[in-house]
User: What shape does this take?
Amino acid sequence: MSRRAWLWIAFVLVHVAVAVSGFVWPTQPMGDLSIAYQPWVNQALSGGGIPGIASDWVYPQLAIVPMIVAGSWAQLFGGYEIAWAILVTLCDALAFALLIGAARSRGRVLAAGFWLAFAAALGPVGMYRIDAITVPLAIAACLWLVGRPALASALLAIGTWIKVWPAALLLAAIIAVRRRVAVFAGAAVTTAVVLLGILALGGISHAFGFVGGQTGRGLQLEAPVSAYLLWRVVLGMPDSAVVYDQALNTMQVQGPGAEVVSAVMTPLLFVVLAAVAALGAVKAVRGASFVRLFPPLALAVTLGFIVLNKVGSPQFQVWLIAPLVLALVISRRRWRGFAVGGLAAALLTQFVYPLTYLGVMSAEVGPVAILTTRNLLLVALFVWSLVELVRVPARVRHPSSVL
Assistant: This one.
């Protein structure tokens, strides 16, 4: 049997196993679908107003599209959760086919294996969240950045209007890709089309409502920045607690300084990302090649989004898949250690959610220790990506070429 056939068999087995685990693992890993997505779809289709159009929404406006698609398939496949799993699998299959091609490239085969291993390690939360729709878009975009930069940036812009994080890859692409005008144009045209659609539907006043929805949130339980307060709860400090935010369906921590830290984190996130982008721009100006600059820059910006985010949802780990897939395609030897670290973070995340999440919410020592270890690993990967970015060499020119 060919290597390509084995890869597709593995693809099917992993997706089936992950889909089934959503039904059997504890803590309702598919809860967002029934608690949030399906009610939003019902609201949109029953005349109650489209989220993001009739009112501000926690997600960008295009997020409702895959939710409605899954809703339209729900009766056909026997339930919204099954329809969602099928939709995600079909989207993944398109990007997987693009990635492996004829399965002759060792780098692409390794990258495909990494993607499947990551999906298995992370478990159902990687499939049963809106972030899952953005992963194949981001992978296809990364693979097309050099050859089809306008199309690639359009895909990243679409992903950004589904769940904001692909903007990190778009920022890295504008810096690292030499055909910057094409990258910028593809994203700008796509964004203009989306905004015109929002305007036509009468929702332009809510076009960027998702920005305020994120900045106004408290410190989520799983976020790295929440570790100090969470351990205060573990140690029984009476001034700290784990609380449930019913409006956002998230667990948050409260305690001394929580409001100040929450207010500071979003500005700090943008300051750090601006500094990382500036470092990448300096490397680009000095002639760094795309193959050396884009992987560490994309990983640094993406990990910055995760590590410095006060919303530490477990599905954020899928953001690492696309930049690591491209990194392995470009240089499997340089990035395989980093990929192993990413797999470890994904596996620890599944132990946190859904397997021991009740213990995390109850501030039990073991589950909180696993969460803290995962967060420390993410911080280490962020630092590693910054070191790799600093080490990106400038293009060496012959002295005569400067004259």
Summary: Strands lie at 241-245, 250-254. Residues 258-285 form the longest helix (28 residues). Residues 3-393 form one domain.
